[in-house]
Design brief:
The chain has helices at about 25-35, 65-75, 105-110, 115-125; strands at about 5-10, 15-20, 45-50, 50-55, 95, 125-130, 140, 155-160, 165-170, 170-175, 180, 185-190, 210-215. It has a 4-stranded antiparallel sheet, with helices on one face. A 4-stranded mixed sheet has the order 5-13-6-7. It has a 3-stranded antiparallel sheet with strand order 10-9-12, with no helix packed on it. It is an alpha+beta fold. Strand 3 and strand 4 form a beta hairpin.
């Protein structure tokens, strides 16, 4: 982070929430980790995004001014790169992938790599779930090799199969259920990343680290 506070502003988001605007994703994750490690009274929920953190609170316990002051104090105390995993120290999630996706060859062409090299670069990093969005259980994972920072498809698909492992921009993601989508599909996984009978239903929760491993026919095709 740059010198000074990474907090750019705080604004109301209804009667029981505020939206903190920060200088970038590392600051969002660091502030969220700080608030989770020592949760302020009345703070009920923290919802991270790429550059914002939504803080929901119980107005019978605390108020806008107190929450705003707490956010400013916590943000001012963050150290550079101070991004921690949430309390509970979730284990790294290993996701087995069949690299047989319909966009694998196109990603190889866009990057100047072979399909096998795309797979090798995609399975090498340790990813972090930065935030959730788009659909229940869909996590935006950071850590993608910069060479694989490819644009979204010009024409999104009307239906992407559940379990599709994809890249777009600087993120990797896994579609937890069939849905429209414009990310480039590298492969598929059978891992049950979203299960409404589980608590919590999503395995890809913010702060969790993830590794992908290549398996099956077509894994390095």
């Amino acid at each position: 982070m740059s010198g000074g506070t990474p907090l750019l502003g705080v604004r109301r988001a209804g009667d029981a929430a505020v939206l903190a605007e920060l200088e970038g994703l590392p600051a969002v994750l660091a502030l969220r980790a700080s608030l989770l490690a020592e949760r302020p009274p009345g703070v009920d929920e923290l919802v991270p995004a790429a550059r914002t953190l939504l803080v929901r609170y119980d107005p019978s316990v605390t108020g806008h001014d107190d929450v705003r002051r707490t956010l400013a104090e916590r943000a001012a105390g963050l150290a550079a790169g101070d991004v921690a995993r949430p309390p509970g120290r979730l284990d790294t999630l290993t996701v087995p992938v069949r690299y047989d996706g319909p966009d694998l060859a196109e990603v190889a062409a866009l990057t100047g790599l072979s399909a096998a090299e795309v797979v090798a670069r995609h399975t090498a990093p340790l990813y972090t779930v930065a935030f959730a969005g788009f659909a229940p259980g869909f996590g935006y994972l950071t850590g993608t090799d910069p060479v694989l920072h490819v644009p979204r498809r010009a024409e999104p698909r009307t239906a992407v199969p559940a379990g599709s492992v994809a890249v777009a921009g600087g993120y990797t993601g896994v579609y937890p259920r069939s849905s429209p989508g414009g990310w480039r599909l590298l492969g598929t996984t059978d891992a049950p990343l979203w299960d409404t009978d589980r608590d919590p239903p999503a395995l890809l929760v913010p702060g969790r680290t993830v590794r992908f491993t290549a398996i099956g026919v077509g894994a390095t095709a």
